Amino acid sequence: xxxxxxxxxxxxxxxxxxxxxxxxxxxxxxxxxxxxxxxxxxxxxxxxxxxxxxxxxxxxxxxxxxxxxxxxxxxxxxxxxxxxxxxxxxxxxxxxxxxxxxxxxxxxxxxxxxxxxxxxxxxxxxxxxxxxxxxxxxxxxxxxxxxxxxxxxxxxxxxxxxxxxxxxxxxxxxxxxxxxxxxxxxxxxxxxxxxxxxxx
Length: 200
Description:
Elements (H helix, E strand, L loop, with lengths): L3 E4 L6 E5 L10 E5 L2 E7 L3 E5 L6 E6 L12 E2 L4 E6 L4 E10 L2 E10 L9 E4 L2 E5 L8 E5 L5 E5 L5 E6 L2 E6 L3 E8 L2 E9 L4
């Protein structure tokens, strides 16, 4: 078996299949590191970067978590900062990626257990990352400084949520079925409007 497989989207033929990493429940993303496209995959106990053209391993970095449940997708920034987060005692970390010649260097800037994105998403806005932080108890909407790992604020006014960011605003749907429109700064979250769209 192979951990990562690339298919031809026209006919489904396998282009390459490589590596023996154990899989997780996260989806991969494509990033560009100093001019090179890289496929980033959050695996069972590490995050890896491979060449999308041939599957060759470019780098890997350990991120152990209970049961291998690295679920939330990584978040890439224009300053070559890669944010990853998970529940199950995983926490968050930011990696700075850079290329010199054919080699990618990975530098861990910080790690913290104060931000734990269980299974929803995280989004970067400027220099902070927002996400619902928590495992099986409360999961307040939290902002953390991407460069330092400092928690900027926690909003406990609604439960765990999934969200989009468009035109400078968050569109948030929490697990109680409340749909919200909000804005965020490094100082806090402002809910502009809210409506109940789903019920249990």
